[in-house]
Amino acid sequence: MKRVLAGVDFVARAGEVTVLLGVNGAGKTTTLECAQGLRRRTGGAIRLLGEDPQLATAELRARVGVMLQEGGLPPSAKPLALLKHVAGMYRDPLPVDDLAERLGLREFAGTTIRRLSGGQKQRVALAAALVGRPEVVFLDEPSAGLDPQSRQVVFDLIGDLRAQGLGIVLTTHLLDDAERLADYVAILDRGRIVAEGTVAELLGTATHAARRLTLRGPAGLDLAQAFPAGGGLHVLEPSAGHYQVDGELTTAHLASLAQWLDAQGIMPTSLELGTQSLEDVFLGIAEASAAQDAMAHKEKSAHREKETA
Question: Which CATH architecture is the domain 211-275 placed in?
Fold first, then answer.
């Protein structure tokens, strides 16, 4: 038996957007399916609005909205007819016409689901997840396949739902989306949470509280010479004449850089200092996790060879 998830432990609160972040295959969708009771877990405990989702009653199901990555939409149905059918299953659904207008469903209302684009199907699936006025909504990759205008519509809607007090749990592998939407982030890597917290906390932890300096100037500079050796800075030239310095940059580093540039007679065409993004943090965590796994695998292999000898 292959273990897909291990050590996944988090709390999603009402009135907040909790984002499960990770690359494809990290375990995000499986986590959502277990939390919804759509996939049976082999261990651990899950509570959804105080109940075990695997034993969910009809009353609990009515309080939860679900948008799956694959949609689960009947291919021969048309969007508005489908939405009205789903709305009829709830005691107090949202007005279908208003929701359709908000998500722009009328522009393809006469087209069957099978003929819709990926982004259009996403909007229909989101509407179906929300029409029952849920208290908690699970959104699996809600912005996947959307054009910029549609993404903004979805982001605005998610913001409104949060303001109304809904608990929103969504998955994404798009770091910009996570940084923009999340109140709380859990980063998954190969089925386990490797970091969690608010975006500000993840960007401000001691391990990752680094800054990034970008500089443009002549190509081929040995910019690493501008800084004291052993300072823990990483200097790259991703493209010709475009330099990137990451690490715990201090005013002393900036003074050293200015002195070196002056000694070389170099005036940069641009120089900018900023904090690292959530993408930088995520990539750093992923690299560290991969290195730990490689070390663990190496130790296991050495132990097996020793036992065999």
Answer: 2-Layer Sandwich (3.30)
